[in-house]
Amino acid sequence: MDTPRNDSNQLNQINQHELQDYLNHHLLGAKSGIRLFQAAADTWDGTEYEQEFRDLSGEVTEEKEELEQLIDRLGLRQSIVENALGLAAGVAGRLNPVNITRSKSEGMTQVEMDILQSALQGKAGMYAVLAKLAERFPDAGLDGQRMKDLYQQAQDQQARVRRISDATMDTRFVAH
After folding, report:
1. Global confidence as pTM
2. 37, 53 in Cβ contact below 8 A?
3. Would you say 102 and 42 are in contact if contact means Cβ atoms under 8 Å apart?
């Protein structure tokens, strides 16, 4: 991976190579997450939950774009390899290997919900780390308040998926 190119004094106190690697891994995850939420919307096509998953996909798309801008603003580089992996992961996510049949009533549907919640928890973790770095290095180019807002947004998104999971659980686990 290329060496970061930012010369900010406080940013230089942060291990830029590790930060760049960390953010690129999350960028890869975001690209996969977008497709996973689109696949979930397809699973719930025609139901009251379809639009919620489409909205979540849109929000994750906006956050991915903001993460790309953050990487650029910090003078870090986006990984060419991870960009390629992101494209491949996006295709795989769209094919929905977790819930191939797009069933609403099988155990794999619950696994799909669990994976979405896990992805959102990972994203929340990233924003918590970035908020802490912003506190410690206030002039490094990280907007601490924005990172806290994005952390809360990820928590709210996770709660929305959990609500859908809870509301639809009977279709999977209660004998009819």
Report:
1. 0.82
2. yes
3. yes
Q: Domain map of the chain by residue range?
A: 10-169
Indicate left, alpha or beta for 14 from its phi (over 0: left) and psi (-120 to 50: alpha): beta
Task: Name every residue whose Cβ is closer than 8 Å to that of residue 44 and which is 6 or more positions away in sequence.
Answer: 50, 53, 104, 164
Cα gap 154→128, rounded to integer Å:
10
Cα 169 to Cα 7, 56, 87, 103, distances in angstroms: 51, 20, 32, 13
Whole-number Å distance between alpha carbons of 145 and 67: 15
Q: Could you tell me which CATH class the domain 10-169 is placed in?
A: mainly alpha
Q: What is the pLDDT of residues 112-132, one digit of tens each?
A: 999 999 999 999 999 999 999
Q: Are 32 and 61 in contact (CB under 8 A)?
A: no
